[in-house]
Design goal:
single chain; Aminopeptidase; globular
């Protein structure tokens, strides 16, 4: 037995319509109120940044982000259950932030369920701040759940941020 652990390679690759059945399966496995396959297809067709997270050749997660004007909006971020709590969500989030910056976004936004403290903590540790609340935004088993709105500045010039 080798003393060196086998290192898997993490990479990101574009999501195409042919990937939607697998992505939809991962989505349904991880969320009680999952997106439909049609929503994923619509995001791809609309030209959103739709990224798969690959560990070697296995899809372990995905991220969907919309870019408009000088803003980015993370719409969906998921790491499949067997791969959670290993730092992959943070790496995916930073990949999306880099993509937003490459598209000249100055701010990046997202919504998160307050009932998901692990996600809230991930976003806070990644420089996102709570900027608002969307009432009754998400479906929940108790009816509707609010969403925390979080944002992170991608601008290095504070005067750019102040104009928003």
């Amino acid at each position: 037995m080798s003393s060196n652990p086998i290192q898997a390679e993490l990479s990101f690759a574009p999501m195409h319509v042919r990937h939607v059945p697998l992505i939809g399966t991962i989505e349904r496995r991880n969320y009680d109120f999952a997106w439909s396959d049609g929503i994923f297809r619509d995001c791809i067709k609309a030209g959103y940044i739709c990224q798969r997270v690959l560990l070697d050749d296995d899809v372990i997660g995905y991220g969907i982000m919309q870019i408009g004007a000088d803003e980015a909006h993370i719409l969906n971020l998921c790491i499949d259950q067997p791969w959670q709590r290993q730092g992959f969500a943070r790496l995916l989030l930073e990949h999306l932030v880099q993509q937003a910056g490459a598209h000249r976004a100055q701010m990046i936004f997202l919504e998160v369920r307050p009932s998901n403290p692990r996600a809230v903590e991930l976003y806070q540790r990644s420089g996102f701040n709570e900027i608002g609340l969307r009432k009754a935004y998400y479906d929940s088993h108790q009816g509707r759940e609010d969403a925390l709105v979080m944002a992170r500045s991608l601008s290095t010039n504070m005067s750019d941020v102040m104009r928003h």
